[in-house]
């Protein structure tokens, strides 16, 4: 009765992918987001901010801000501390310092559709509308991270307002990158000059990242052996869902996560019951337990 | 390096034969039902109630509870894989997206803190007379449990699963006041047609009185109590509100200050709502508001 001997061999050597069983240190900082929410851009921004002497690229990002879901336990154990680590995990109480990047799920769905095609999980003929249902139900790659609402909800509900939790919206980062990077610098306790922030922003521009992807995409752990005709660095824009996402899919996403989206400032376009304060979301199950008392 | 490798060899051998206790790494099956709560929130009582509901022919006790409603922290991966299905599984885990069907039991954190204080005495993690204030500070910071803080555990489930199919929320306090009604709710959730007699029998067999009698006889047989102090009971007060007389005011304030919004949304009235608890909560809300604009 041997369970997964290959996996166990890897475990013995420490070459297993760290993922959720990563050994966490108290001084680790995590860059967490749902996939396709600007995590790689944030990694570049942070790495360029912390290491102005060494421009970040896809060739050194795994050393500067390693990916806990692509690197081995042993590799991550050897990264000098304090580490800054990339993660897509839903709530993990062991993560003490967290920068959480959130993005409008309607844009995430659109981006994730391209990503699933790039990874050959679905083919080009697979309808976007079907994919949007997979996205809402947590199928395909989403199975590893929880749904968008579960991932975001699990972090925001547990850590919001705490000093070791920095919540960034991808849309704000696009609109005023300097300001959001200044928040990141403050979170790291840095006295960053405007020049240093500007340098980090410029070295993480979408043009530069696209150029680097062309040169290094075939070697980077997250894009190696994936379809080269679909870029990893995509539009780097917000709001494309308005024209590109089918109406039904918009409605499906909003009906799944309306209250959470509204709480994060994402305006809903389909009318629905029960939108409003984030805490209403927390209390409706309670209302049903309380209503039992009248039976 | 050597100790790293040695540890991995021991753990790896256990892994290979499925002898490790899977805990959070449990292999989840699509028809599993989970009984989830923060520790010291009535989980064992709920296990007894549900076990007695499902198996009216043989009463649940501390020697068979792990076979009827297994604990992934107490059984090996191999034992868990061989359980008859559907499995009813006990868990204290914070949010896990793989759990398909969940009965979540929540209890007033002021009582949970007190109960955990006594449980830690029982487990010899605290000495008699240890400071309650200091314990509560660690409790609020999530340092007394591997299952995150009370607020993190509860909020992680409520924010992700409340109002979704496959999630039933029970309040320990409601269960105490009207056990039969809450168990009927559970039966309905599980799709079990239970007669009044069957419900009443399950409730009677799981009463605090019965459970105390069983604990007296079987404490040394059960994995959760066998290596603990036998002079401190596992089945404790079994009633809500003990915090009002036993918890120092400063600790009540600390708990309410940490989780005011969540407690109120669960129907737990605060003593110091208008004072610093509220101020602190609004301060954190304003911070979120600034980020979100």
Structure description:
The complex is a heterodimer of chains A (295) and B (293). In chain A, 47% of the residues lie in helices and 7% in strands. By secondary structure, chain A is an alpha/beta fold. Chain A has one domain: Rossmann fold. Chain A has a 4-stranded parallel β-sheet, sandwiched between helices. Chain A is globular. Chain B has 293 residues and is α/β, with parallel strands linked by helices. Chain B folds into 2 domains: 187 residues, Rossmann fold, CATH 3.40.50.300; 46 residues, no CATH class. In chain B, 52% of the residues lie in helices and 7% in strands. Chain B is built from 14 helices and 4 strands. Chain B has a 4-stranded parallel β-sheet, with helices on both faces. At the A-B interface, helix 1, helix 7, strand 4 and helix 14 of A face helix 1, helix 7, strand 4, helix 9 and helix 13 of B.
Number of strands of chain B: 4
> Roughly what percent helix of chain B?
40-55%
Annotation, overall tally of beta strands of chain A: 4
Under CATH, the topology of the largest domain in chain B can be stated as Rossmann fold
CATH class of the largest domain in chain B: Alpha Beta
């Amino acid at each position: 009765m041997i369970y997964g001997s290959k996996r166990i061999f890897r475990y013995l050597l420490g070459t297993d992918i760290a993922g959720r069983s990563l050994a966490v240190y108290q001084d680790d900082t995590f860059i967490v987001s749902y996939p396709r929410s600007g995590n790689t851009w944030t990694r570049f921004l942070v790495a360029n901010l912390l290491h102005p002497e060494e421009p970040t690229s896809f060739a050194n990002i795994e050393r500067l801000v390693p990916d806990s879901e692509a690197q081995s336990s042993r590799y991550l154990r050897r990264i000098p501390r304090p580490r800054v680590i990339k993660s897509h995990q839903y709530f993990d109480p062991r993560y003490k310092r967290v920068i959480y990047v959130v993005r409008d799920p309607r844009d995430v769905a659109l981006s994730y559709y391209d990503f699933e095609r790039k990874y050959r999980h679905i083919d080009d003929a697979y309808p976007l509308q079907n994919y949007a249902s997979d996205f809402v139900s947590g199928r395909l790659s989403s199975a590893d991270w929880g749904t968008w609402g579960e991932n975001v909800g699990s972090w925001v509900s547990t850590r919001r307002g705490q000093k070791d939790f920095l919540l960034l919206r991808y849309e704000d980062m696009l609109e005023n990158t300097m300001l959001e990077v200044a928040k990141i610098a403050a979170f790291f306790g840095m006295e960053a000059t405007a020049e240093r922030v500007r340098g980090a922003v410029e070295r993480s521009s979408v043009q530069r990242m696209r150029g680097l992807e062309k040169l290094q995409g075939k070697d980077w752990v997250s894009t190696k052996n994936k379809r080269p005709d679909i870029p990893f660095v995509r539009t780097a824009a917000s709001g494309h869902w308005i024209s590109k996402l089918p109406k039904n899919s918009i409605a499906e996403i909003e009906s799944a996560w309306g209250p959470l989206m509204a709480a994060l400032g994402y305006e809903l376009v389909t009318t629905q019951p029960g939108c409003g304060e984030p805490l209403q979301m927390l209390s409706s199950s309670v209302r049903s337990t309380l209503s039992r008392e009248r039976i | 390096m050597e100790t790293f490798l040695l540890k991995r060899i021991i753990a790896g051998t256990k892994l290979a034969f499925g002898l490790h206790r899977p805990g959070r790494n449990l292999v989840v099956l699509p028809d599993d039902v989970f009984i989830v709560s923060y520790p010291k929130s009535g989980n064992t009582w709920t296990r007894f109630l549900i076990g007695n509901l499902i198996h009216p022919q043989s009463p649940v006790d501390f020697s068979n509870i792990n076979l009827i409603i297994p604990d992934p922290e107490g059984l090996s991966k191999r034992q868990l894989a061989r359980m008859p299905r559907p499995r009813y599984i006990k868990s204290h885990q914070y949010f896990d997206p793989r759990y398909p069907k969940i009965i979540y039991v929540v209890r007033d954190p002021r009582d949970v803190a007190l109960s955990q204080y006594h449980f830690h005495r029982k487990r010899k993690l605290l000495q008699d007379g240890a400071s309650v204030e200091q314990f509560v500070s660690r409790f609020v910071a999530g340092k007394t449990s591997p299952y995150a803080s009370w607020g993190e555990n509860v909020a992680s489930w409520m924010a992700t699963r409340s109002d979704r199919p496959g999630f039933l929320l029970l309040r320990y306090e409601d269960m105490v006041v009207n056990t039969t009604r809450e168990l009927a709710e559970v039966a309905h959730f599980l799709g079990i047609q239970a007669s009044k007699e069957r419900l009443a029998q399950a409730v009677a067999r799981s009463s605090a009185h019965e459970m105390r009698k069983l604990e007296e006889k079987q404490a040394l047989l059960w994995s959760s109590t066998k290596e603990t102090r036998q002079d401190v009971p596992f089945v404790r007060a079994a009633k809500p509100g003990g915090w009002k007389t036993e918890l120092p005011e400063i600790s009540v304030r600390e708990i309410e200050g940490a989780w005011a919004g969540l407690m109120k949304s669960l129907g737990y009235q605060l003593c110091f709502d208008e004072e610093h608890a509220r101020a602190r909560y609004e301060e954190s809300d304003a911070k979120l508001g600034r980020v979100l604009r």
